[in-house]
UniProtKB/TrEMBL annotation:
Pathway it works in: Carbohydrate metabolism; galactose metabolism
Protein name: UDP-glucose 4-epimerase
EC code: 5.1.3.2
Residue span, NAD-dependent epimerase/dehydratase domain: 3-253
Keywords: Carbohydrate metabolism, Isomerase, NAD
InterPro entries: Epimerase_deHydtase, NAD(P)-bd_dom_sf, UDP_G4E
Cofactor(s) recorded in Swiss-Prot or TrEMBL: NAD(+)
Organism: Streptomyces umbrinus
Amino acid sequence: MTWLITGGAGYIGAHVVRALTEAGERAVVYDDLSTGIAERVPDGVPLVVGSTLDGERVARALKDHSVTGVVHLAAKKQVGESVDLPLHYYRENVEGLRVLLQAVTAAAVPSFVFSSSAAVYGMPSAAREGALVTEETPCVPMSPYGETKLAGEWLVRATGRAHGLSTASLRYFNVAGAAAPELADTGVFNLIPMVFEKLTEGVPPRVFGDDYPTPDGTCVRDYIHVADLAEAHVAAARRLAAAPGTDLTLNIGRGEGVSVREMIDRINEVTGHTLAPAVTPRRPGDPPRVVASADRIAAELAWKAKYDVHDMITSAWEGWVRLHPEARRG
Ligand code: WQD
């Protein structure tokens, strides 16, 4: 199989490329390099620089490389930014997907894996009751970003049914860590890098609210190591290739809740920093608890996470100090 990985020069995409090639699959990266980094693409893996909005370029890449499956990760992914720039998010994430699918169906490529998000659930009702979020939990996205991912799932499924395309939508929970320091996330948009940044500056990390209805009052999330997430893509890709007509929607999480306060304590342990966090007001729109049920992916793909929160923090920290050597204590 030859897989075209859109967004393959991004943080998660580069991990998917590595996992697929290590599993013996051929990979071709398609990335507009707006946030992707060309150096993340390994030697021997072709890089086509282009936007998924450019249908002709996509069509040529599918043909030139005899692509037999697509893993689509290229997207805009900042929740706050999506509130200010909804037109941009719908264009990049929904129109970009539509143009890509048009080329995929025209070329009769049989398999399509779509990068979705727990953001499709919004403020999940299950979370309020302390239960795990299953794929049956109603989807009520709370941001234009989450809306584009849910609309994307609908478009992928409808196209799959109409054109005989095997599809999987993978709903990522909170992705963290790195398989190697040079593959680490360079963005500072999520809890772990935001805490690292504060520690590096020598100021207390922030807890956005400690009056939530959770055991320690801080928000609870389901953190998943990016290397485990990448392996889930390999399992999904192989299933689609082996079973035409597949239509999967799967959570990718560990089923274990970790609070913001616990996470900051663990980060201090790993990094040797000792700054106590500062509690600030709640960040608008944060659900108290979002923890996946990972039962369906275990049953469907026999996939299970191997790494824990300690592995995520340790590997993310190695990537961070590579770029910020001053962060190392002492
Ligand atoms: C985690 C928790 C914060 C920073 C978002 C998107 C989701 C997905 C992943 C996709 C929250 C708290 C954070 C800080 C804090 N994106 N926090 N202090 O919001 O669960 O999910 O990223 O592509 O769609 O919504 O992740 O890492 O921003 O926050 O207290 O300095 O940490 O309030 O409770 P979130 P996050």
